[in-house]
Amino acid sequence: MWTAIAVIAVLLLYVVAVYNGLVARRNQVREAWATIDTQLKRRYDLIPNLMETVRGAAAHEKDTLNAVISARNAAISATGADARGAAENKLTGALKSIFALAESYPTLRANDNFLELQRELTDTETKIQAARQFYNTVVMGLNTQIEQFPSNIIARMFGITPEQLFTIDDSERAAPQVKF
Fold first, then answer.
1. Phi, psi dihedrals of residue 167, rounded to the nearest 5°
2. Please, what is the Cα angle at 38 between 65 and 83, to 5 degrees?
3. Which residue of 49, 107, 116, 170 lies most exposed, with the fewest beta carbons within 10 A?
């Protein structure tokens, strides 16, 4: 009888330990996503200032400016890792077009505000990439634990499900073409 009680106690302690590990990993995923959100918010806040600076120097480039504004609004309203990732990738592409536009306008390239905003956005993009990489690392840890036996049984019992990785779309996978 004492042996049965000891076995049940050990199993119960094991279930509690695995559950607590899963909860800790799930909370790491949430924290990592919050870090991405913080950097995205920073980028969203910088974009209107960038748009005003570009608008003054290249007023007739409305299509490019509207594309960035539209991409920003879509990214802000996107929900879920997949939709958010796709919207963020479109915004990144739109921002690249703004920086390419600067090459055509010497007054824009010489504008201190534009250069500072460009540096800030570049720094933010670097931080976003690092946050995405960290997010994917902790998601992989959670998903691996959820899929491994016997923790998969405990995860299923408590409704802990795998999370989506932050991925890029096919257009970003294509190698850039360099033409001379």
1. -120, 165
2. 65
3. 170
Which pLDDT value is given to residue 103?
A: 76
Question: pTM of the full predicted structure?
Answer: 0.74
Report pLDDT digits (tens) over 76-108: 888 877 788 888 888 888 888 877 877 777 777
Domain count, the chain: 1
- Answer for the pair 139, 89: CB distance below 8 angstroms, yes or no: no
Measure CA 172 to chain center. Answer: 15
> What is the domain-level CATH number for residue 128?
1.20.1440.20
Report the chain's terminal Cα–Cα distance, integer Å: 83
Looking at every residue in the chain, the average pLDDT score rounds to 85
Q: Is 96 domain-assigned? A: yes
Question: Is the Cβ–Cβ distance between 99 and 87 less than 8 Å?
Answer: no
Residue 148 domain boundaries: 2-165
Q: Among all chains, which residue has been given the structure tokens 């000891």?
A: 6
